Write a sequence for this structure.
């Protein structure tokens, strides 16, 4: 379990890790999370090496809700999202000031194993990235990692159905995942991520490679999935955020201090952000005056 | 933006350009053909010189186990066996070692370690030190490449004076305890299969490591991320995703190294024992075809030359068969990957 231990992540260096169960159990009293906030993300300053990528971003993600991150390219949406399941630990020189609480526990605590975190907080990436193996094995990969005891075939089918891919691939499950079209690959990745039933699903522009029909299907999937999971999604598609997200955070780039540092401008219910934005950058962005 | 009034600057190629183009093309064809002709010539010449021996001895030469000029008996089965045994064993050790080193380098463990050390001193972003992690990594890579630059006679000496004395006590201890097992049925008295294989493994290390490394770093980072994102540990990612994805390249590396090991001469002539023995024992002296050739061509008369050429042809065929089989497997691996 502790193999992932990454010497660069100062936060995790060389300490005994806790098992997934400990995270699952949670310690409601040890963190500020209250009520239905499942992930409380508070980034004060975040660096890639010397580069200050994000500052002052506090986003509470609510359970069984869809939270959208919007903002211009390069403002740090992916960065923030990747903080939520410690994917940034893989980047050498990544460090940040602040905390991310998951079910009341700081996932960057020294006692927490990032691998365990990622098993509870799954991710769909900006670009489709299926493994070089059969469609079936792609979806089964996570199940096997978790030592899933039930019928893997059933779960694979269920996941593929949920990702609106089953009908297209049910006759060729043995074929290589890379043989699918780009949009199909992305849905395969979504199936792979939901197969293990993580508590939270992070989706980084999951629909950017999809046609409108598939996009609609994925949106339906998200609304369906939020009964069971919590979803955080990054999107460039404002209509999509409006359609599916319960809450929306708008990030923008601050160039005043020399660098290009992203920060959270405004966060609130999607209705409020889109109908009645309070901050000037948000208003301009939503009116489409820059992107 | 060009306007209508500007003189037209496009023109068809001149006769001179056509001629240069043609000359270039034909010289490429020529050099390409030269390689093929050269290869064909070498094979033909070996065949021609070996022909008398082939006629005289036939297949008995290949399956015979005695090489005794006084009794006019010549067989190279022990050499064939020794060639395959020592190369396979060397490749086995070399692959495990080489792929492990390739993983170690491709995963950036070296750079990450140096970075960590630097960060203890707060130096990791300073002008002078910020590139140090990559520099150390490049240095280590170069060191491994340098293994290929060591002459094989040096490897041979190193094997005789370092490897054999170093492993002999342990080998003999194993032999005493487990002499019932055929692999350990003889004692290691000096040169033998195992020291030869160990040195071979180190000799093929640069090939295996550098090509496997290229194959591993060619795996798109997003695939790595996908695996980590699902909650795989680093080893689950390496074994479950990275190695299978890089498998064709790694297999190609091993194949290339195998060819190299089959033909390696000097180090083996010094280390394998040059004894016409056919034994499963790792500690027994043996012989290889290449070493046989190197050791015998000096005092060879016409008849021996013909015999040696016959043996060379056998080595050539072994190498060819290994390469063809390997290419077939490789093709299968690649096709599987690219299949739509
Ligand atoms: N691994 C990394 N190393 C160094 N800098 C990075 C890394 N990843 C992102 N950055 C930088 O951090 C900033 C934010 O990047 P990020 O990918 O989070 O933007 P984004 O909002 O997702 O943009 P887009 O909408 O184009 O995907 C950018 O300036 C980028 O150059
Ligand atoms: Mg992004």
């Amino acid at each position: 379990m502790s193999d992932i231990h990454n010497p660069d992540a100062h936060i995790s260096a060389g300490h005994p890790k806790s098992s997934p169960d400990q995270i699952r159990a949670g310690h409601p009293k040890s963190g500020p999370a209250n009520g239905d906030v499942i992930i409380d993300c508070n980034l004060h300053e975040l660096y890639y090496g010397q580069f200050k990528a994000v500052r002052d971003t506090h986003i509470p993600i609510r359970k069984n809700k869809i939270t959208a991150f919007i903002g211009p390219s390069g403002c740090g949406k992916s960065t923030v999202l990747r903080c939520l399941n410690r994917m940034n630990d893989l980047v050498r020189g990544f460090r940040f000031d602040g905390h991310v609480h998951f079910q009341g526990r700081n996932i960057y605590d020294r006692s927490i194993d990032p691998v365990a975190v990622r098993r509870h907080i799954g991710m769909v990436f900006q670009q489709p990235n299926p493994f070089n193996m059969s469609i079936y094995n792609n979806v089964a990969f996570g199940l096997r990692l978790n030592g899933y005891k039930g019928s893997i075939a059933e779960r694979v089918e269920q996941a593929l159905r949920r990702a609106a891919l089953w009908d297209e691939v049910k006759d060729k499950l043995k074929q290589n995942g890379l043989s699918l079209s780009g949009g199909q690959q992305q849905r395969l990745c979504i199936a792979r991520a939901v197969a293990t039933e993580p508590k939270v699903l992070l989706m980084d522009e999951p629909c950017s490679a999809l046609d409108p029909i598939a996009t609609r299907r994925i949106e339906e999937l998200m609304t369906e999935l939020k009964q069971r999971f919590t979803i955080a999604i990054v999107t460039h598609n404002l209509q999509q955020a409006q359609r599916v997200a319960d809450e929306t955070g708008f990030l923008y780039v601050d160039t005043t201090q020399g660098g290009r540092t992203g920060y959270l401008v405004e966060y609130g219910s999607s209705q409020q952000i889109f109908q009645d934005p309070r901050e000037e950058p948000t208003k301009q962005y939503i009116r489409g005056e820059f992107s | 933006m060009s306007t209508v009034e500007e003189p037209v600057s496009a023109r068809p190629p001149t006769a001179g350009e056509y001629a240069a183009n043609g000359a270039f093309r034909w010289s490429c064809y020529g050099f390409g053909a030269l390689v093929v002709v050269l290869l064909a010539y070498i094979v033909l010449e070996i065949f021609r010189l070996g022909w008398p021996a082939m006629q005289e001895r036939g297949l008995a030469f290949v399956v015979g186990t005695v090489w005794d000029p006084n009794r006019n008996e010549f067989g190279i089965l022990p050499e064939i066996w020794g060639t395959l045994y020592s190369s396979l064993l060397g490749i086995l050790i070399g692959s495990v070692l080489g792929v492990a080193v390739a993983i170690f380098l491709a995963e950036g463990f070296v750079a990450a370690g140096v970075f960590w050390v630097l960060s203890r001193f707060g130096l990791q972003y300073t002008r002078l030190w910020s590139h140090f992690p990559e520099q150390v990594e490049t240095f280590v890579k170069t060191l491994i490449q340098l293994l290929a630059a060591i002459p094989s006679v040096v490897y041979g000496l190193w094997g005789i004076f370092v490897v054999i004395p170093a492993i002999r006590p342990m080998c003999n201890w194993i032999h005493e305890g487990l002499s019932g097992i055929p692999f350990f049925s003889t004692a290691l008295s000096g040169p033998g299969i195992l020291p030869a294989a160990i040195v071979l493994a180190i000799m093929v290390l640069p090939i295996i490591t550098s090509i496997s490394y290229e194959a591993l770093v060619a795996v798109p980072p997003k695939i790595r991320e996908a695996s980590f994102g699902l909650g795989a540990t680093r080893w689950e990612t390496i074994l479950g995703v990275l190695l299978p994805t890089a498998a064709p390249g790694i297999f190609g590396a091993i194949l290339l190294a195998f060819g190299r090991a089959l033909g390696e001469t000097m180090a083996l002539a010094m280390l394998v024992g040059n004894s016409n023995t056919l034994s499963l024992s790792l500690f027994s002296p043996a012989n290889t075809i290449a070493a046989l050739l190197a050791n015998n061509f000096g005092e060879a008369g016409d008849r021996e030359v013909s015999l040696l050429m016959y043996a060379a042809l056998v080595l050539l065929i072994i190498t060819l068969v290994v390469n063809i089989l390997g290419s077939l497997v490789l093709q299968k691996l690649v096709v599987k990957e690219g299949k739509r």
